[in-house]
Amino acid sequence: MLKPEIIHRLQEIVGKDDVLSAREDLATYSYDGTTNWTGTPEVVVLPRTTEQISEIMKLATRHHIAVTPRGAGTNISGGSVPTRGGIVLCTVKMNRVLDINKTNLTAMVEPGVVLQDFNNMLAKENLFYPPDPQSFLGCTMGGTIAENSGGPLCVKYGVTKHYVLGLEVVLPSGYVMKVGGSTVKNRTGYDLVPLFTGSEGTLGVITRITLRLIPRPAARRTLMAIFDDMTLAGAVVSSILGAGIVPAKIEFVDNFVIRRIEEKMKIGLPVDAKTMLLIDVDGSEAAVESEAERILELLKEGGARIARRAKDETEAALYWKARSAGFAAIYSAARTVIAEDVTVPRDRLSEYIQRLDEISRKSGFPIVLIGHAGDGNIHPSVSTDSTDKEDLERLEDTLTAIFEMALELGGTLSGEHGIGLEKKRLLSRALDPMAIDAMRKIKAIFDPDNIMNPDKIWENA
Amino acid sequence: MLKPEIIHRLQEIVGKDDVLSAREDLATYSYDGTTNWTGTPEVVVLPRTTEQISEIMKLATRHHIAVTPRGAGTNISGGSVPTRGGIVLCTVKMNRVLDINKTNLTAMVEPGVVLQDFNNMLAKENLFYPPDPQSFLGCTMGGTIAENSGGPLCVKYGVTKHYVLGLEVVLPSGYVMKVGGSTVKNRTGYDLVPLFTGSEGTLGVITRITLRLIPRPAARRTLMAIFDDMTLAGAVVSSILGAGIVPAKIEFVDNFVIRRIEEKMKIGLPVDAKTMLLIDVDGSEAAVESEAERILELLKEGGARIARRAKDETEAALYWKARSAGFAAIYSAARTVIAEDVTVPRDRLSEYIQRLDEISRKSGFPIVLIGHAGDGNIHPSVSTDSTDKEDLERLEDTLTAIFEMALELGGTLSGEHGIGLEKKRLLSRALDPMAIDAMRKIKAIFDPDNIMNPDKIWENA
Fold first, then answer.
1. Which of A444, B251, B289, B401 has the most neighbouring CB atoms within 10 Å?
2. For position A44, which CATH number holds?
3. What is the pTM of this model?
4. Considering the domain boundaries, does residue A450 fall inside one?
5. Using a CB-CB distance cutoff of 8 angstroms, which residues of chain A are in contact with residue B435?
């Protein structure tokens, strides 16, 4: 346990009410969105200003206390689990949107702003911030930067790093460093903004974020297609993109998810179907009309049993609600669910789906497919029972097999969830050893005492 | 001079014909696109493979010889000037396009591919790579990555770093390192790709590049507007973007350029006008029609004397040729022309233009305005005579004044040209000192002996 004078000093910095140390409070901050990683902090602080965070970091450095920064803790890589106890530094009370500028197409926010709240504010100004991790209802902006979040919209709009212009970060020393700026064009030395974007809280605490926005697309169409063959569905994704159309979203769910959705929502999906694709196109009214028509043709040519456009916003919303419900259904179907996050080049999707099926049959683990087909980022969700030790060992081998297969197809270990605790055992097989060495040295530049979110990303971190 | 055995070893590595050491050859590689920086190399090598580059770097490290990597040398920051003699490593003979993939929307190229050649190949596949530095006819892909190049299209499409998925780089040690991959979603440790993108050849030699592409926009419209007041033109840029329209390009030229264009091309521009704006919109046929109409309205409401759409591709091409001719005209108008590259937030454009006018009047230096209004990146081109020493000192003060003004307006030191030699004296005033310190330490990770393009970016580098 931390010494009473440390707790006392934290109370001085942020005020008594914003320092939590009761057992039930600490338990609340002991887990993230994964089902298999936990760690209990010794204290939780909820600062409201950059200055307070600077003082907390100085204290932590002086006493060599591990600090785990977090927002809503919705990540699914173990990234915000305080493995070494220490201080959980939770930024949810820094939740001001400081600026929205329509001419510059920029915004400045604090890290604790909830993504959905931000999007609602932008919508009133006819503006749009595309990255849309599926935790959007609760996740905070600081977390989305630290994890370089993706989401369904990234097929058209790119990921979080494509939208971060500038950051204020508090380094472990307490120094408040500014990197980047507020213009898209900025060529002053090495670009440190993308280094902190996706750094999973291991380099510093993000305290202020300047973002690039785009105008809100004027129109949207949603299409739904049903396939009797998963690999056909994978191939049709390739044919849409090959035809020069980049939909805003191309989402994929498998038979398991279709059945769960139908059980819960009764929207008339054929429960014997192997795949449902949900596709959004957005842009000007005229553009979405012609794109939707062309995609319908391609879906039919590609062998869809059913291919139709949502007749109105209500039907479109119903489909997207079903997609969300599907994800929830996966998590409730087993005690332990690992949402894998490998990503493959899009032209390898059919092969990827086939080989996942083989891995599932061989291992005996059910593998459910749901995710972002347009990015080659369909999450294979492997379900098992975490209380069974033997099962867990076999599970690890199965996850390794999935990863190795993705790498063989030219893919990557993680598309959007990050490494955290979940994938660090595999990192050295995914990256050039010299690149890992460089990353560790970069970590040491900013965090020489290794107090910023230790144990994450690398083995022996 | 380098010892004969070094030259001999270089000849062994790349072959005799690809090692240049004649005086006239060395002179050819002694300058870049600036008018005021030069440095003569001791030898020039033109490798054809990554393996050759690895051998060259090992040799350079062993003998502690400075290496200046370059492509076509079109940069305008002194970035590829070999200030310490040593080896110029020119990648123009590595000019293969290795892969273009329509489904994945990716390409893989060698560093010596000329940007325009690449674009021509992509056009045949109906694909598009947006970054368009105005040296596109000659500049090579490796250089555009090393400089993180911008251009007119960046207002809508972002800059080079938004398109780089993966890199192969040869480090000073000779180690061939792979960073990133071939998918847009890739969350494996710190993102080293944007570190090398924009590193100005100071970290390693880029030998292979994987790029993200987009489908080629189906249609395009060009609009031209003439203003009697520069600040009105600046304000109208804000009103277009504020209306939710992001044109592909918004280019600005001033009265000096209008007169030069009219002298050379006689296309009927009013020579008394203060500003011409050239605007491109692209996208689907229907989208560009409605956007062009709306922009025409906004131009007229914003006080344009003339506002019209190019009636066909021929007229559009004429306007864009005039824009290019304008830039050439600036360079031919004086012995020394410094194309400043400060960038300001778009909503400060009017103020920026007004204050540049004040600086010009106070200093007596003509300042011509030409550039990317949509990015707040209008290059103020200051002309003088580099043979007059007193003039050059006053020029330095004037450039500093421009930079300080841009910073006051929330802008940045360089929007797209980079630091190189040109702006390194100002870097410490533009960035957080701790960020500069971190950059230098990152440099030392990859290049501990400081042989990779030394003297660039920082003072005492």
1. B251
2. 3.30.43.10
3. 0.96
4. no
5. 177-179, 189, 192
